[in-house]
Amino acid sequence: MSEDTTHSRPARRRRPSGRPAAGSRTGAGTSRRGGKNDRNAPTDRSGNGVEQALTAAGTPGPPPVEHFSELALPAPVLAELTRQGVTVPFPIQAATLPSSIAGRDVLGRGRTGSGKTLAFGLAVLARIAEQRAEPGRPLAMILVPTRELAQQVTDALTPYARAVRLRLATVVGGMSIGRQAAALRGGAEVVVATPGRLRDLIERGDCRLDQVAVTVLDEADQMADMGFLPQVTALLRQVAPGGQRLLFSATLDRNVDTLVRRFLSDPVVHAVDPSAGAVTAMEHHVLHVAEDDKNQTVVRIAAREGRVLLFVDSKRGADRLAKRLLAQGVRAAALHGGKSQPQRTRVLDQFKDGQVSVLVATNVAARGIHIDTLDLVVNVDPPADHKDYLHRGGRTARAGASGSVVTLVLPEQRREMDRLTARAGISARTTAVRSSDAALAEITGAREPSGIPVTITPPAAAAPPAPASARARNGARRGRTGSGAAATSLRANGRSGNGGSGTAGAARSAGRPAATRSRRRAA
């Protein structure tokens, strides 16, 4: 279903009378291909030029609000915000929510950790509150680039969705597609998805997007960088004509500009921090290190008191560094795309609850991972470009907190690092250090490790599914021995798998031998 992104989009049609009210648009402009959005003026390659062009061509929206109570949010959502202790919106929320709740298309740019999830999430819930989705036909779609970000969005929105009795379905790769299909068939008003897995479910006939009235693209720049534009384009073509589009990103570049010009109608553009994405609550340090001393420098930084997130270039490099740190007495674990989704989730849980103090990660952790009170991120290997730098650094100094980003730079990397920081719009303090220097300890809290090897119990690997033929044979045998009663009992208990409906999950659980169920519970 991948399609070339240069294919022209069909002209918008007037919404049929039976469509959800959320799709109606207040202040919408002309067609997505014409009028104010048909802007062919050249833009430069920097985020500045793209943002200036989009802002100049857009239509102003309502002024920002100072309190959530000023917004047309459902009363249960306002009550839940109060219960959660969230009363004053962050700048990106204050700026975009008046426009998005009113039905306008919105292009919002705010740095990582600035509160974008609630900025679009509350608008989605307000727009479709009190509506019910048909089986397999969600009313709102939130597209994200990574599994971790999908789970973060779901976790953040669940209490507010529950307050207005809206159901969320999380659809990502690496997890049971059957359970996700069951969740959609059970009726989910909001689907939070990565593009590839949602495409798979549509091709299976488990989901249709023709009732989607509100679409969100979160971290749009990363979706473009990861090559998701053809999949995103194909999905957007399937949603209800005339629906609302909300696009949020930490950076704006020409790839994002392509999406905006193509799919947003007369958007309100809001940018709440400097266009390069520099973070004022964050300190930036570039440490010049010698090649023969780099490994020891990393070990001493990792041995600091408190948690630290270390970024490296490769899966193998992450595994090797984690193993080296464990041998030195540092409680470390690796996180990368070579691990299954359940393993990645458990590693993150270990890091969040303190079982692991050092997370060695590839760029899989650069977006969509929210870790409270993380005050140090270290680029053991410098990032490939300024956007990767900003998103790696965005794991610290979140929600107004402070933090530090440290990048270790070898002599041959210095010139490229200078270009990267200039492109990112940051001013970094540069220091030449050795692993034993007091300056390293002052900047990072580095100290000598204990040297006593430690062991971290690795997350259990997910058991591979049984072949279809074996499942069929087992099912036939269980059918002859009366497993139907067990299935009925489990259905009554409402047990369900991760992301699946209670009935579907119970039926699958009942269909497994007792020994298998016991092993799963033990795991």
TrEMBL record:
Pfam families: DEAD, Helicase_C. GO terms for molecular function: ATP binding; hydrolase activity; nucleic acid binding; RNA helicase activity. Residues 293-444 form the Helicase C-terminal domain. Keywords: ATP-binding, Helicase, Hydrolase, Nucleotide-binding. Residues 18-31, 483-495, 504-516 have a biased composition (Low complexity). Residues 97-270 form the Helicase ATP-binding domain. Residues 66-94 form the DEAD-box RNA helicase Q domain. GO terms for cellular component: cytosol. The keyword Nucleotide-binding applies. It comes from the Bacteria. Residues 1-66, 449-523 are annotated as: Disordered. PROSITE patterns: HELICASE_ATP_BIND_1, HELICASE_CTER, Q_MOTIF. A motif (Q motif) lies at residues 66-94. Belongs to the DEAD box helicase family. This is Superfamily II DNA and RNA helicase. It comes from Actinacidiphila guanduensis.
